[in-house]
Specification:
Layout: E1 4-10, E2 13-19, H1 29-52, E3 61-67, E4 72-79, E5 90-99, E6 102-107, H2 111-119, H3 127-139, E7 158-166, E8 177-181, E9 186-188, E10 193-201, E11 204-210, E12 215-220, E13 233-234, E14 239-242, E15 258-264, E16 267-268, E17 275-276, E18 279-282, E19 291-294, E20 297-300, E21 304-306, E22 316-319, E23 326-330, E24 339-344, E25 348-362, E26 365-373, E27 378-380, E28 384-385
Antiparallel strand pairs: 1-2, 3-4, 4-5, 5-6, 7-8, 7-21, 8-15, 9-14, 10-11, 10-13, 11-12, 12-15, 15-16, 17-18, 18-19, 19-20, 22-25, 22-28, 23-24, 25-26, 26-27
Cofactor: Zn(2+)
Pfam family, one: Peptidase_M23
Organism: Saccharopolyspora kobensis
Length: 396
């Protein structure tokens, strides 16, 4: 029988004990809540305290979403953050099975959790979720050079990076989080996976997407949350919520934004050196500093970066036509070349390569840089927002 791991300290070393909370008469909801809280504090309490800079002050919130009469339960549990600067809640997905000795509780991101959800009946954990959790766990142990994730807004659009790499709770390590705002305010899933919501209060909550590639992403401060139920599939770019100042489980915020965090396995992972949305993020000496880098261009905190989508193979730009309603696409990077297409303002252009040609006085000033589309034709960089003043694609 699997026993829940609990972390204690003996002569400076971690020791393993078992947590089995004996069921009271009826083995009801209160017993489940107690078991999940105890497991959450044992496994994640120390990390939460370190992030918060203070001992855990509130009991973990337990939100079961499914159960059956065979003694199985599934849901989320969250340690609320204290009301201190930029603190963020800690959350986990749990599966629990009631046995004679008490509830056996497993938290996501571990081999024990994968084994437990595999044993759980399909009315509590779907077959699709079982496959997802198994793949996520296996892939979380494999080194990758690119997350395969986009940024959490529409592809080809630029948002403000209001906060560079920082901890899930501000100064805490690792620097796993980024703050973004801009555009239409709609926060979109950074990749395909399944969605889970926790700490649902006052129209806000903490949204998490578990991805097959070993990563999970979380999104905090939002309102207008997706109406998708826990465990439902989401695709890259699916709507999750809107930027706001929601604090359903503590923390603080100075204005509407999304607090976007990256996790692997059962813990946060640094964004330093990770490529997301075509940008590689670098942390600074202090939290909220650092920058995003792409093709030699660096954008620091307070700057705008364009979501170039999943992976880095095809850069993109957005047509900015200025006083016009459209921009000409020419057969060569010359103003005298024939017009082969017209693109309306706001169109997303996938860029194959770049070259120097005729100078053009565009929205972004005078430039001789031209971009060749992946479907053919040339558009002046003066009418294309790419998040950079220089080339973002290889030379043609």
């Amino acid at each position: 029988m699997l026993l829940k791991r609990a972390i204690g300290v003996a002569a400076g070393a971690a020791v393993v004990t078992a947590i089995l909370v004996a069921p009271a008469s009826g083995a009801g909801q209160a017993d489940l809540d107690s078991a999940v809280r105890e497991a959450m504090l044992a496994e994640r309490g120390a990390a939460a305290s370190a992030d918060f800079g203070t001992p855990v002050l509130a009991e973990p919130l337990v939100e079961p979403t499914r159960s059956n009469d065979q003694g199985w339960a599934f849901g989320t549990t969250t340690i609320p953050a204290p009301d201190v600067e930029h603190a963020g809640p800690h959350t986990a997905i749990f599966v629990a099975h009631r046995q004679a000795q008490g509830w056996q509780v497993e938290l996501d991101g571990t081999a024990e959790f994968v084994e437990a959800v595999e044993r759980a009946p399909a009315d509590v954990v779907s077959e699709g979720e079982k496959q997802l959790f198994a793949r996520n766990y296996e892939n979380s142990r494999v080194a990758v050079a690119d997350t395969g994730l986009g940024l959490p807004w529409a592809e080809g659009v630029a948002w403000w990076m209001g906060g560079g790499p920082h901890g899930d709770s501000g100064q805490s390590r690792p620097f796993s989080s980024l703050d973004f705002n801009g555009g239409n305010g709609q926060v979109l899933s950074a990749g395909a996976g399944r969605v889970y919501k926790s700490c649902l209060r006052n129209g806000s909550g903490l949204v998490r997407v578990v991805h097959e590639n070993g990563f999970s992403t979380t999104y905090y401060h939002m309102t207008g949350l997706t109406d998708l139920g826990d465990g439902q599939p989401v695709a890259y770019g699916d709507y999750l919520g809107r930027i706001d100042v929601g604090l359903p489980c503590g923390g603080s915020t100075t204005g509407p934004h999304v607090h976007f965090s990256l996790l692997r396995g059962d813990s946060h992972t640094k964004v330093d050196g990770q490529t997301i949305g075509g940008w590689t993020f670098r942390e600074g000496a202090q939290a909220y500093g650092g920058y995003a880098e792409r093709n030699g261009t660096q954008v620091g905190t307070g700057g705008r970066i364009t979501n170039h989508g999943q992976g880095t193979s095809t850069p993109t730009g957005v047509v900015e036509s200025g006083q016009n309603t459209s921009v000409n696409v020419r057969s060569e990077p010359r103003l005298s070349a024939p017009v082969v297409d017209e693109l309306p303002d706001g169109s997303v252009v996938r860029i194959k390569c770049t070259a120097r040609g005729d100078f053009v006085d565009g929205v972004w000033g005078r430039t001789d840089l031209w971009n060749q589309r992946d479907v053919g034709g040339w558009i002046s960089d003066g009418f294309l927002y790419t998040g950079s003043d220089g080339p973002i694609a290889p030379a043609c």
